[in-house]
Amino acid sequence: MPSCPPTLGDFSVLPISIPPLPSFPRAVVHYIYVRRNAPKIPTANDSRSLFLTNVPVDSTERHLRGLFAALVGTGRFEGVRFEDERKNTNSPPAIQPAEVARLLAQNKKRKREEEDSERAKEDAAAQLPKTWTRPLRGSGSTAIVLLADDKSAEQVLKAIAKLHKSKKYPTWGENVGDNVPRLGSTWLKAHNRLSYPDKDVLQSALDAFSVVFARREREAIETAKRLRSQPDEDGFVTVTRGGRNAPARSSEAEEARKKMLERAEKKKEELTDFYRFQHRERKKEEQAELLQRFEEDRQKLVSMRQQRGKFVPEA
């Protein structure tokens, strides 16, 4: 069985044994690289999360649940988010006018739970039916595993270190059974069948998407109105085509949003120099400080020259 160092940089190397398949009748060892999750923007669950890279292409939640159960026992694994699932959310395709509404959503008050639930139902209904019974991951994909607590994450890393001493690697897909759809011809036949859904199902998804689109258009129009009502640095409100209260196109709303952000940034930069005389006084202070430093350096140079002139070498 091939050997591998227990660690590679910040990663702990987790070897797993992949059993033979009809398409490849030979057992192999696959290496998953594991470390503490440390995203650029910290979250509350980072201490009990592990970052995995080079996960097998046929990875599912049940596969990883069984793998971590073999390492530290059951009850420690809570969930997993794969790379493609983090990039592709379950929301409908992005609509240009709604971009403005989403950017300003952080400035609004929290919506009522009933309204959020209704929106989630509408977004879910707007999704087209899935055509694959089981996804495949890209080569070298990543995943984030959420464990029960910080102690569980530490125990997983310790269990990985012990594997390199015992050489008893966990078997990939063990105890999964028929809980995960099989790959191969059965998987492809199911995809061919799901690629042609019933017309009523497609019509229902289309109707739901139209509802979501209309809702986001209304949000974008309301946001555009509010943005156009924002005064500039001189206190004037620009009147655009159709009047101040007319619906704006997505390009107009985006342009208004950019102008508002630029004005906010400019005000932030000029906060320390609100009045012109403050700016002039600060410049004068800087010039006086430079002149004082120049005079001090000049006096030091004169003193050094005088000391050097009094020096008499020995005969």
Automatic annotation (TrEMBL):
<dbReference type="GO" id="GO:0000028">
    <property type="term" value="P:ribosomal small subunit assembly"/>
</dbReference>
<dbReference type="Pfam" id="PF12923">
    <property type="entry name" value="RRP7"/>
</dbReference>
<feature type="domain" description="Ribosomal RNA-processing protein 7 C-terminal">
    <location>
        <begin position="194"/>
        <end position="313"/>
    </location>
</feature>
<feature type="domain" description="Rrp7 RRM-like N-terminal">
    <location>
        <begin position="11"/>
        <end position="189"/>
    </location>
</feature>
<dbReference type="GO" id="GO:0034456">
    <property type="term" value="C:UTP-C complex"/>
</dbReference>
<dbReference type="InterPro" id="IPR024326">
    <property type="entry name" value="RRP7_C"/>
</dbReference>
<protein>
    <submittedName>
        <fullName>Ribosomal RNA-processing protein 7-domain-containing protein</fullName>
    </submittedName>
</protein>
<dbReference type="Pfam" id="PF17799">
    <property type="entry name" value="RRM_Rrp7"/>
</dbReference>
<feature type="compositionally biased region" description="Basic and acidic residues">
    <location>
        <begin position="112"/>
        <end position="124"/>
    </location>
</feature>
<feature type="region of interest" description="Disordered">
    <location>
        <begin position="234"/>
        <end position="257"/>
    </location>
</feature>
<comment type="similarity">
    <text>Belongs to the RRP7 family.</text>
</comment>
<dbReference type="InterPro" id="IPR040446">
    <property type="entry name" value="RRP7"/>
</dbReference>
<dbReference type="InterPro" id="IPR040447">
    <property type="entry name" value="RRM_Rrp7"/>
</dbReference>
<dbReference type="GO" id="GO:0032545">
    <property type="term" value="C:CURI complex"/>
</dbReference>
<dbReference type="GO" id="GO:0006364">
    <property type="term" value="P:rRNA processing"/>
</dbReference>
<feature type="region of interest" description="Disordered">
    <location>
        <begin position="106"/>
        <end position="126"/>
    </location>
</feature>
